[in-house]
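Z., the sequence and structure:
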Amino acid sequence: METSQGTGPLAGLKVIEMGQLIAGPFAAKTLADFGADVVKIEPPGAGDPLRNWRLLKNGTSVWWQVQSRNKRSVALDLRKAEAQEIVRKLAAEADVLIENFRPGALEGWGLDPQKLVEANPRLVVLRISGYGQTGPYRDRPGFGVVGEAMGGLRHLTAEPGRVPVRVGVSIGDTLAALHGVIGILMALHERQRSGKGQVIDVALYEAVFNCMESLLPEYSAFGAVRGPGGSALPGIAPSNAYLCSDGGYALIAGNGDSIYKRLMAAIGREDLGNDPALANNAGRVVRVDEIDAAIGAWTKARTVTEVLEVLARVGVPAGRIYTVADIAADPHYAARGMLQQMRLEDGEMLTVPGIVPKLSRTPGGQHRNAPALGQDTDAVLREVGLSEQQIAALKERGVIQAKA
């Protein structure tokens, strides 16, 4: 849905985004979707590299249209003192500053977050990096895939005995971004009491590790090192992907005690459903191969659709593995507003993901397309008090860039 600028639960919140690519910009996008005024600072010339990542339409990544919607773009050469002074002016009036450079980069530009907070005591600064701002690994370059590996996720995403694989998207960056947004909202809430901002330190690997469920306590208590489980959910039975007659897979989660009995009845295996030894999860885990074989034999004689229809009638959680083509054609996605239409500058329509989460009274929305590089440089600099003559001089010296 489209909304007018200045609406949403975060309307009036001023955010400076100094990150690039995924983690920092995703955090800022989430705030912008809910009404925050996000000023994105990009280097002159090519801007954020994400503008040119993956598939391009009219010279610009369609990913960019999602990641930078609702933002304003200011092009500054942060290597120059005059650009650094502009950032200080912006930070002095901002509520939030987001950055995801390697630790020490801001300090190298004379933009130490602690000093920015001293100058604006209400400022909340989110710092996202591979390994955090402290510790022996702080200076190492860290991308999402490295954080996923160190956080324990990559070891689990494989078929047993095969090479661990990516989950298919930059999940480490996104998890770090979402943890960053949580940190920002908590800091802003606390600011209402204290009147003071603070610095939030999010490490990619820690954001991933925070989602690793019982991984560490199992090791601590039992010395158990959880290994890759392929499509199954290790220690929980039955829960797996089962091959169907049309070559597709049905995901079936029959691991609740009552659900398991209904599943066994539906596939004609009441003997397994009524077996006292399989009445709870502990017993089913011991015989998971036998149970999976029974379910697999049943699904192989039916298409994915047939399997899902039967299981829906008896209340067993199940689903198909969606491709993006499935997503784009799905009526539930459409009904929930998750297939949002936006009009590009050339007049063509582009389908992009809708807004998450859904708020009943103050929902988020899109009020502005992703900006061209430097599209808002002049306007933002005027807002912090620069004159037309000063702006023109900065352009002449290559400190700033505005949209032609």
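The mean pLDDT is 95. The chain has two domains: 14-210+334-401, 239-243+249-320.

Let me know what you think.
H.
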